[in-house]
Every structure is written in structure tokens, then in C-alpha cells.
Design a protein that fits this description.
With about 110 residues, the chain is of the alpha+beta class. About 35% of the residues lie in helices and about 25% in strands. The protein has helices spanning about 5-15, 30-50, 85-90, and strands spanning about 20-25, 55-60, 70-75, 95-100. It has a four-stranded antiparallel beta sheet. The radius of gyration is 14 Å and the shape is globular. It starts with a helix and ends in a 7-residue tail after the last strand.
Length: about 110
């Protein structure tokens, strides 16, 4: 992705209030299409716990040193699920979910 396009998305995402920032890694051999299904399944499990739809955005990236696909994402609408619970629900590898106390960049 070109830097100016990436910067444009970052600026746009700053306009929203996000509950979580996350990085979810994928085991070796998982391709993009399967990775997308894993992400949607993870969001679906979180929505079941929350009892309502969540808003989210994600960016796929391949690690420079590991060569592994992973997602960086943000999630909004979380009311009761703990980040550690969300991490344990990720089935594609390991996950890190952090609480964002205010909107990106504000």
C-alpha cells in the first residue's frame, strides 16, 4: 500500500471512537481468504458475547522478518467483553488486544 493511501486511512479512522486496538497473527500456511474467514468468525463470536453487532476495521500485513500474515485492527461497540477473553477466542494463532481509552491520535 502506498504511504499516502495508508496515511489517508489512518486519518479517516481517527474520526471514530474505538474500544480496542488489536494485532492477530496467523499460523504459517494460512492464506488471505482463510485468514479473512477466521477474522469474521472471531468478530462473530465477539458479537455473540456482546449481544449486538460490532464495528471494526482491519489491515492485512505480512511481517518483514517472519513472512507471516497478520492483521492490525480496531473494534468499536464493545461493552462487556474483556480483552483477554477476545484474545482467547482468536483461532488463527496468537492475538493481542488492548483497550483504547480515546480515539486514535486524539
Amino acid at each position: 500500500m502506498e504511504d499516502n493511501t495508508k496515511d489517508g486511512y489512518v486519518d479517516w479512522l481517527k474520526e471514530f471512537e474505538w474500544n480496542w486496538g488489536c494485532t492477530v497473527n496467523l499460523r504459517y500456511g494460512i492464506r488471505r481468504k482463510s485468514a479473512g474467514c477466521l477474522w469474521r468468525g472471531w468478530i462473530g463470536r465477539l458479537e455473540e458475547l456482546e449481544g449486538h453487532p460490532l464495528s471494526w476495521a482491519r489491515l492485512a500485513e505480512v511481517g518483514e522478518t517472519s513472512g507471516r500474515l497478520h492483521f492490525h485492527g480496531v473494534v468499536a461497540g464493545v461493552l462487556c467483553t474483556a480483552p483477554k477473553t477476545a484474545e482467547s477466542l482468536w483461532l488463527g494463532g496468537d492475538a493481542r488486544v488492548v483497550v483504547m481509552h480515546r480515539a486514535l491520535g486524539r
